[in-house]
Structure to design on (307 residues):
């Protein structure tokens, strides 16, 4: 999980640097295409799993194939296209500080969705934690007009959609990873996302080539795309889904609260983005909120599979 947090935090910095050379839509779509390409070997993994302690037979696999394809498709859309796509495009219109703190909405949304689907109990401490964390996000959001990092309402909105995508990906994925291999589900969701964004990627390649900018992209620019696709998408989501098999959705989602700290510090170190008073207060409120949510992690009632 420490590696996962480091990769997620570095995503903000690599994305900001790459956006100096690539349009936001190009970077977002190229990132997802790279993730899909490196995930293609998952199509050749043995199709085995466990149900009630018995290996899945070919006949059972055929009966559930449509269900599995549908699950992979919506997980690819919410977790990869919506989450990673909106995150990358939104990063073009907001600062690292804003982006990382708004992504802090994801664990709150995960907790709400988990409660609505009766996966976890909504305790008083968790309600207090959500209120504190939302207050922290609000403290950051109202500052966007005067932030030296160049934040806009559009960037904040796209980043909030990315947080929504991660929340849906986590909660809906809980049942899927209990039925199928976590690694296979993660990789195939990347493949599904690549198929969904293929028209956008081709459009961006054509536009860059027509403008004479495709050949001007540096090795550093392509290296950033590869980093975001391989480590920021494919590898990190394997770890995320693997952990989801053994943790509650809200418990896993709370890990992402460590991103703002890492991303803001990296933004200050590599990009020179200032840590304003309001951003600092918002970060402290979010940390206080997640502490309230997770300080009694053994209280929630037992998990149940999605209906």
């Amino acid at each position: 999980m420490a590696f996962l947090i480091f990769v997620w935090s570095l995503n903000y910095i690599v994305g900001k640097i790459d956006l100096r050379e690539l349009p936001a839509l190009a970077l977002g779509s190229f990132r997802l295409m790279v993730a899909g390409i490196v995930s293609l070997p998952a199509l050749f993994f043995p199709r085995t799993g466990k149900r009630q302690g018995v290996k899945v037979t070919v006949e059972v696999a055929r009966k559930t194939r449509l269900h599995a394809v549908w699950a992979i498709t919506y997980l690819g859309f919410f977790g990869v296209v919506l989450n990673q796509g909106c995150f990358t495009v939104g990063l073009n219109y907001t600062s690292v500080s804003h982006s990382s703190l708004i992504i802090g909405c994801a664990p709150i949304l995960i907790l709400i969705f988990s409660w609505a689907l009766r996966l976890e109990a909504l305790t008083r401490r968790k309600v207090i934690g959500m209120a504190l964390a939302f207050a922290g996000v609000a403290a950051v959001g109202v500052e966007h007009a005067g932030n030296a990092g160049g934040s806009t309402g559009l960037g904040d909105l796209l980043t909030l959609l990315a947080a929504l995508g991660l929340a849906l990906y986590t909660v809906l994925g809980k049942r899927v990873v209990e039925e199928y291999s976590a690694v296979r589900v993660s990789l195939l969701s990347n493949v599904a996302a690549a198929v969904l964004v293929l028209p956008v990627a081709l459009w961006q390649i054509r536009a860059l080539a027509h403008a004479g900018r495709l050949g001007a992209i540096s090795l550093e620019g392509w290296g950033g795309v590869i980093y975001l696709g391989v480590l920021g998408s494919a590898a990190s989501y394997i770890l995320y889904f693997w952990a989801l098999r053994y943790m509650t959705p809200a418990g896993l989602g709370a890990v992402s609260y460590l991103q703002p700290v890492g991303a803001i510090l990296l933004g200050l170190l590599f990009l020179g983005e200032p840590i304003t008073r309001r951003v600092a207060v918002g970060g402290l409120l979010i940390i206080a909120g997640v502490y309230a949510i997770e300080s009694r992690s053994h209280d929630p009632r037992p998990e149940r599979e999605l209906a």
